[in-house]
Design brief:
- The protein has about 425 residues and is α/β, with parallel strands linked by helices.
- It is about 25% helix and about 25% strand.
- It has helices at about 15-25, 65-75, 130-135, 145, 150-165, 175-185, 200-215, 265, 330-345, 370, 400-415; strands spanning about 5-10, 30-35, 45-50, 55, 60-65, 80-85, 90-95, 100-105, 195-200, 220-225, 225-235, 235-240, 245-250, 255, 275-285, 295-300, 305-310, 315-320, 355-365, 385.
- It is globular, with a radius of gyration of 22 Å.
- The two termini are about 20 Å apart.
- Bound molecules: flavin-adenine dinucleotide.
- Flavin-adenine dinucleotide (FAD) binds next to helix 1, strand 2, strand 15, strand 19 and helix 11.
């Protein structure tokens, strides 16, 4: 497959865009097909007509140690796409007590910050930090809850970070996935832990520059193009079926299937993919305000809301692992969370205009059982590879994982022998 003339990428989320831009950068002709009206998938911005402002479907936090994401942004030429504090700082507020603190890892690899009271988690014993080492060496079947020692470090830092990174409650969450995140970030030193968010919005940073990059590299992005089935013969994809007609594939053409986990089995019957999901609920309030702590966000302990972000035109809140709240009435959620925000941010104003965005299948549930259902890029069809945050990246479902999966799919098509083979499950 290494003399490809044309690659068809199905799905314009970040996995598909990463694969498409990596292939286009190597001179291949690429066409991307996206079912929705715009690219970006689960990481996109849009104009909320009622609020009258552009919002992200959900707040997305990255860390400076997310190497695949940083390389992707450099590749697509995104200009100054991310914003965050210059130092790795994580301000928190505990709602019941009103106590505030900032976790501030030092930038080097030797973690002397855990010895400095003003940089560490209040009330945490030094021995509790050994949980980080246990996580990095977690074995399949270990849950996050089992490896966190009960104490203030878990309650005031590691559990909120785990819920944000894995979108799954610690009791059921696979510790190997959190260990992989810790190894890339906290254990790599504070320089890998700077918190970053899209400067204006996800689409402006991650999606529009990728679209422009594709167009300037002989590529094409077709929106409103939903793949309905694959035609196959002799172990290869021979045509892509869309409502608007078929696209026949020549022998030197290939496909990257970068659709979500719930869609892939409908197109590739028999494939084993994650089939249990967790919601994320985001609440956006049309008010601009500075947050205490100078990071642009605050972690909230002891509330319904978990992370509060100051965005250019709104205060936005994330509730992860949200199957527990997703069916609650939107107005009830908005009022409950606003009272928490007012306390966290020191605001006394009445609740401004709001929007609740419920993503019911935000990510696969990061349990050991679901992790075991993640396939590698290779399939039984010689000219079709998989990409997506749900494939076996070794990471939870994140931007970093999605981009890594797209890069890997591209590498596999460019050189099947050199590309890493992961995942138990060739479809
Ligand atoms: C609310 C929310 C908050 C999040 N917060 C964070 C965070 O803070 N940090 C972080 O790193 N990650 C976060 N994530 C996870 C991150 O958004 C995802 O891991 C990533 O965007 C997934 O990208 P993907 O390309 O794998 O999948 P998707 O984005 O789902 O892309 C798949 C694309 O395929 C398209 N498609 C589906 N069916 C078809 C078809 N038949 N034909 C053509 N196209 C099709 C879809 O429309 C979609 O555009 C969050 C996710 C959500 C939902």
């Amino acid at each position: 497959m290494n003399r490809l003339s044309h690659v068809h990428v199905v799905g314009a989320g970040l996995a598909g865009l990463a694969a498409a831009t990596a292939l286009a950068a190597r001179g291949l002709r690429v066409t991307v097909y996206e079912a929705g009206p715009a690219a970006g998938g689960r990481a996109r911005s849009y104009l909320d007509r009622e609020l009258g402002v552009v919002i992200d479907n959900g707040n997305h936090l990255l860390l400076s140690g997310n190497r695949a994401a940083m390389a992707y942004l450099a590749r697509i030429g995104a200009r100054d796409p991310l914003v965050g504090p210059k130092q790795p700082i994580f301000p928190f507020v505990e709602l019941p007590s009103g106590r505030r603190w900032t976790v501030a890892p030092n930038t080097g690899r030797i973690p002397w910050w855990v010895l400095v009271p003003s940089r560490r988690v209040p009330g945490a014993r030094l021995s509790e930090y050994l949980a980080l080492r246990r996580l990095i060496h977690a074995r399949p079947g270990d849950t996050v809850a089992a490896l966190l020692a009960a104490g203030e470090l878990a309650r005031r830092l590691l559990e909120p970070l785990a819920i944000a990174a894995l979108n799954t409650m610690p009791e059921g969450a696979d510790a190997t996935l959190l260990g992989a995140v810790v190894a890339q970030t906290l254990a790599a030193g504070g320089a890998a832990c700077r918190p970053l968010v899209a400067r204006e919005g996800l689409s402006e940073s991650f999606v529009h520059p990728a679209r422009d990059f594709l167009v300037s590299h002989r590529g094409e992005l077709r929106t409103g193009a939903r793949l309905t089935s694959l035609e196959t013969a002799s172990g290869r994809v021979t045509a892509l079926r869309f409502a608007g007609g078929d696209i026949a594939l020549a022998p030197d053409e290939a496909v990257v299937l970068a659709v979500p986990a719930a869609v892939a089995p409908t197109l590739l019957p028999g494939i084993i993919a994650p089939d249990a999901f967790e919601a994320i609920v985001n609440l956006h309030y049309r008010v601009t305000a500075q947050l205490p702590g100078d990071a642009g966000f605050i972690g909230i302990i002891g509330g319904t809301a978990e992370w509060l972000f100051a965005r250019p035109h709104a205060l936005s809140v994330t509730i992860s692992a949200a199957n527990r709240v997703v069916d609650r009435d939107a107005e009830y959620l908005a009022r409950t969370v606003w009272s928490e925000i007012a306390a966290a941010a020191g605001l006394s104003a009445a609740m401004p205009a709001w929007r609740v965005v419920k993503e019911r299948r935000a990510t696969f549930a990061a349990t050991a059982a679901q992790n075991a259902r993640r396939p590698g890029p290779r399939t039984l069809l010689a000219n079709l590879v998989l990409a997506g945050d749900w494939t076996a990246t070794g990471l939870p479902a994140t931007i970093e994982g999605a981009i890594r999966s797209g890069d890997r799919a591209a590498a596999f098509l460019l050189d099947p022998d050199a590309a890493p083979q992961t995942g138990p499950n060739p479809a």
